[in-house]
């Protein structure tokens, strides 16, 4: 459960975040999901790469389900990267959206890690 399962959980949760957002704005979920999800999926990939490189640099055993430092780094880079890519691709980055995305992505990407840590 060190890499593959946590990565798949994160991917599903990022897609779910985007689908919920589209649905809450009464937009066609499947029709535009790729357009909405790709910036955050790319941010997620960068976050995972950063977490893997950090573990390698510090000679720590990597655990993708760890809340600290992996989870926090993955969440922060997913959020920042997703917002940056949305901005350069002409998608919205309204302040209210940034706040909602910050909270929901924290709940999703950090929440399951906190639960695993508490139960483990």
Automatic annotation (TrEMBL):
Pfam families named among the record's database cross-references: DUF3054
The entry's keywords: Membrane, Transmembrane, Transmembrane helix
Chain segments annotated as transmembrane: 37-55, 67-88, 94-116
Name of the molecule in the record: DUF3054 domain-containing protein
Native organism: Nocardia jiangsuensis
Source taxonomy: Bacteria, Bacillati, Actinomycetota, Actinomycetes, Mycobacteriales
């Amino acid at each position: 459960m060190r890499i593959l399962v946590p990565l798949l959980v994160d991917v599903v949760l990022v897609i779910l975040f985007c689908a919920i957002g589209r649905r809450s704005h009464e937009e066609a979920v499947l029709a535009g999901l790729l357009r909405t999800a790709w910036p955050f999926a790319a941010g997620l990939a960068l976050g995972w790469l950063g977490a893997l490189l950090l573990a390698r640099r510090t000679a720590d055993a990597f655990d993708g389900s760890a809340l600290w430092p992996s989870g926090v780094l993955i969440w922060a880079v997913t959020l920042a990267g997703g917002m940056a890519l949305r901005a350069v691709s002409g998608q919205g980055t309204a302040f209210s959206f940034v706040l909602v995305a910050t909270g929901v992505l924290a709940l999703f990407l950090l929440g399951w890690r906190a639960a695993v840590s508490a139960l483990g």
